Amino acid sequence: MAVVIGGGNIYRGIAASAGGMDRATGDYMGMLATVINALALQDAIEKAGVPTRVLSAIEMRAVAEPYIRRRAIRHLEKGRVVVFAAGTGNPFFTTDTAGALRAVEMGAEVTLKATKVDGIYTADPGKDPSAVKLPRVGYIEVLNRGLEVMDTTAISLCMDNKLPIVSFVLTRRGNSRRIITGEPVGSIVSNATVPPRG
Fold it and tell me: What is the pTM of this model?
């Protein structure tokens, strides 16, 4: 299993740029926040007895290995959980894009987008009570309707590589296990021609 972790609980570069900070500087600060979260996640996973490696797109050898694709694949082959930190290492790219990119690079079968909402809706269900959940939606529909699953770069990268996206609520206990065992959880983004899952 590989995880791309965000840093929004600590710092958001886009929010800082809205307040007058240089966007690139804000994004780099956000990437550093993801490293903090990656180390915390590594510690929690290893306390559960699972070997874990943090690979960072920004070199900081004292706390994480540098991201090298072949090294990451080797860790996965050895059964280690790999936590990718520091996004893509470049400003102006979100954690969503980093997640899609790493999933494609690792040859993942699916990318899981853990959120606060139990799937993809026609509108924000917290603000619009008439919002309807979409159990399955195509990449083009997500882009055309501006559905806020992931940013457009990430959606396009998944579409170009035929990588399905499952959007689900993170806080519901057991959801990750249910997805891995094939149970229908949340919403799926894929080619519209694929028949709905069970």
Answer: 0.88
